[in-house]
Design a protein that fits this description.
Strand content: 15-25%
Strand order of the largest sheet: 1-3-6-7-2-8-10-9
Family: Belongs to the PSMG2 family.
CATH topology: Rossmann fold
Organism: Seriola lalandi dorsalis
Subunit structure: Forms a heterodimer with PSMG1. The PSMG1-PSMG2 heterodimer interacts directly with the PSMA5 and PSMA7 proteasome alpha subunits.
Distance between the termini: 49 Å
CATH architecture: 3-Layer(aba) Sandwich
Pfam family, one: PAC2
Structural class: alpha/beta
Low-confidence stretches: none
Radius of gyration: 19 Å
Keywords: Chaperone, Nucleus, Phosphoprotein
């Protein structure tokens, strides 16, 4: 359930919603961090649910000491009204037994809020690609029929590769086996996509094949691809420093080595 930060709930009608899937390398979450930080988006509310592991922390986008003392939660909503853009940032894993419930919550909120389209930023294990998925770049996309009706030309112009269907049993050629959509390490990505197809929602998935480790370069790659479509910034690829790195990224791998050890 969405709870707004003040007494006047924001209108999301005709906004584009961008949200991450908690997936391999946290690439989607890192990409959303870059969007919120760079566009200086305003926090307008949060998602109240028992589907996310409960946690709280300081402001990940703090620019001064006063900002740093703000309390932040696992699922928060930010907006940039001038761009008609909303972002749902998810900072905690989804409780495994409540994955379906969380997907239903998100789909219900998307429908009731009147978003014009939704973009899921995600990732998938690079080591589980099949031979065809080794070709081209590491970017893949999925789009629901509802969004394809209005975005087919734009997606074709971008030249992205659609996520390939793979054999249910790799290495075996069985004429009776239909190829299927498989996104290993993608968290709720596949479920949210199939739910959106069933509910006739305008939704797209952008994902990268990657491995666990330092996934900051993957986040920049993914957010640049998103910008090629949504035009959030002007020519970020020509000026890589245009994306503003949040202060919280200095702690991605924990704090420094305590001097007392030496």
């Amino acid at each position: 359930m969405f709870i707004c930060s003040d007494n006047s709930p924001p209108s999301f009608k005709d906004f584009t919603l961008v949200m991450p899937a908690v997936a391999v390398g946290n690439v989607g979450q890192l990409a959303v961090d870059l969007i919120v930080s760079t566009l200086n988006m305003n926090r307008v509310g949060y998602i109240h649910t028992d589907c996310l592991i409960p946690m709280a922390g300081n402001n990940p986008y703090a620019t001064c000491k006063e900002d740093a003392e703000e309390l932040h939660t696992p699922g928060e909503v930010y907006t940039a009204p001038e761009l008609k853009l909303a972002v749902l940032q998810i900072r905690a894993p989804i409780i495994q037994t409540k994955s379906k419930k969380f997907r239903q919550l998100v789909v219900s909120w998307i429908k009731s809020s009147g978003f014009s389209r939704t973009v899921i930023l995600s990732s998938s294990h690079a080591y589980q690609r099949d031979d065809r998925q080794l070709e081209g770049t590491s970017l893949r996309y999925l789009v629901t029929p509802s969004l394809l009706k209005v975005s087919a030309d734009a997606l074709k112009e971008l030249g992205w590769k659609e996520m390939e269907l793979v054999s249910a049993f790799p290495g075996l050629t069985d004429a009776n086996t239909e190829p299927r959509l498989c996104i290993p390490g993608g968290g709720i990505t596949k479920g949210l996509y199939t739910d959106s197809c069933s509910e006739d929602l305008a939704l797209a998935v952008l994902l990268l094949f990657c491995s666990e480790g330092d996934n900051i370069p993957d986040a920049f790659t993914l957010v640049n691809h998103l910008n090629d479509w949504l035009h959030l910034l002007d020519n970020p690829s020509q000026e890589p420093n245009k994306w503003k790195i949040p202060t919280s990224w200095s702690l991605l791998f924990g704090s420094g080595i305590p001097p007392a050890l030496f």
